[in-house]
Amino acid sequence: MHVSAVGRKAETVAVELGLSSDLLGAACWLHDIGYAPALVQTGMHAIDGARYLRRTGWDERIVSMVAHHSCAILEAEERGLAHELADYQRPPEVYEDAVCFCDMTTGPDGSPVIVRDRLAEIEVRYGPEHLVTRFIRRARPQIIDAVVRVDERRAAASA
Ligand SMILES: [Fe+2]
């Protein structure tokens, strides 16, 4: 499963990069919780997940990572929900990048994938006209940059 593989990858990446594995791990295990039908409010899973986590008292650092995961700001703009996302602080770049890396190098079935294949798969899954496809095309350079930055940080940390 995607979510558990992303969560496990986060725990490894956190150790490699000297980040808090409690915070990064929790954010990654929870990043797609907003897809749960009972939690849908705005219809954008990053915001709906963050709202739920804030409501139930999770650490704001985790809430902010879920809210902003994987270039959520661009999806919020596509959906006319940027003002809703503005309720959540942007996480520190190293954490935001790390969530994006774990999410975007893990396929829907939990297997490791390269980021370009992940982006292509999302486009195919949603189809050419879908809002998510428009979003992912806009987000592509930023998502790839985030993955590259994390790879560079991991290489530097292991050198
Ligand atoms: Fe997500």
Automatic annotation (TrEMBL):
Alphabetized InterPro entries for the sequence: HD/PDEase_dom (IPR003607), HD_domain (IPR006674), HDIG_dom (IPR006675)
Domain annotation HD: ranges: 2-82
Domain of life, per lineage: Bacteria
Coiled coil feature spans: none
Protein name: Metal-dependent phosphohydrolase, HD subdomain protein
Taxonomic classification: Bacteria, Bacillati, Actinomycetota, Actinomycetes, Propionibacteriales
